[in-house]
Amino acid sequence: MTDTLLSGKGPFRSDHSVPPADPGAPETMARAALEALQLERLRWTVRHAYENVPMYRAKFEAAGIAPDDIRTLADVERLPFTTKEDLRRAYPFGMFAVPMSEVRRIHASSGTTGRPTVVGYTEGDLDRWADLIARSLRAAGVQPGWKVHNAYGYGLFTGGLGAHAGIERAGCVVIPVSGGQTARQVQLIRDFEPDAIMCTPSYLLTIADAFEEQGLDPRETSLKVAICGAEPWTNEMRHELERRMDLKAVDIYGLSEVMGPGVGQESIETQDGPHVWEDHFLPEIIGEDLQRVADGERGELVFTTLTKEAFPVIRYRTRDLTRLMPGSAYPAMRRIEKITGRNDDMIILRGVNLFPTQIEEIALEIEHLTPHFILELTKRGRMDELTVKIECTPGVSRETSESAALILQLRVKERIGTTVDVEIVPTGSLPRSEGKYKRLYDLRDQG
Ligand code: DLL
Fold first, then answer.
1. Cα–Cα distance list, 73 to 178, 284, 306 (Å)
2. Ligand 1 pocket, 232 CB below 6 A?
């Protein structure tokens, strides 16, 4: 009752809270038809955001643009960007485009600094999200009737509950384990014999280790596919996980501000980077000057949502660095190159840019080195120093591990162009992942 009364108040216009419907099987539609659908949905989104979110209206007005000015897909470039800062300023609910009575769920991304970003979903949003995860699971080779072990964290994080609904929607059996309690994960995988697992790549590594620590062979589980995402990982890490667990690992991409997991998904057939589900999200890549760059060129990924009711975002700057490539398994939908870095993770070491994934890539090529490493940034005098603390495979001699460390140092110098210190640490001494793994420790302020 109160809800109905309240929903008539404020800036909200309920007649704009339903995006244009899906016209059938969008994964297989022709590019021209997809673009026509994108334009229709873009125009709906821009109007919806303008009419219902004061911040968007103010930004559009400041930029001298009105919803009716969006006549082609290229016109998206005339719209102002949205940043994480904009979302933080609106904490907690200032960017919601529907009355709270229409919102059915809230998630939040913690972020490393400051306030979390809060996002909301209407019933329609949750329905489309489940559909997109189900579509992602199909692309990942998951079949109806499969059991899917979901080890993404449940709670405010979008991973657990987001994947959960999609697994059910795909006609699968969801095993809602959440993250952590690794010994129990091992037990459940043995007892329930799931066909697929969803978790971060670093957590899958922790699980593989846990099998071995219990004297079990991780290649002998029932798992056929791992759908990994939520953090940057390299193809070398993919090969490591596939080899150690005898399964196929595919990449799922997403972010809370845009929806959560399932914004893009890699096909198990091609394993060549996530396809962006472009009927729901319009991707762009921008350069350092914030101008759009051509497909194929690297830069920052920017998204405009096309069907979000509660939390539309216009040209949201993700800070994820990648490039757009033509579709492969789904020809009409472009792919992104595997995301190996974010603007925020970039370490500038004595003028040279370096990403943790570059170290992962190099370390995994070297015999006896493991993917268990952290990076410590310190100051020696006025110079920044980076130390790679890394574990070797168990049982190698001191001599062998020292030479592996030296090879790592030389290859980093050769390929990245900077010198890092490498310290071999005892097996099991580094923290293990339970979700998103923290690799970089900035200790420069600590003496
Ligand atoms: O991590 C959503 C998600 C959950 C995606 C489960 C996939 C699986 P946030 O916590 O908002 O949302 O973090 C989003 O994580 O901007 C990227 O920097 C990073 N990220 C997500 N997926 C990938 C991926 C979820 N496949 C941020 N590869 C994003 C690399 C990824 N980075």
1. 39, 11, 12
2. yes
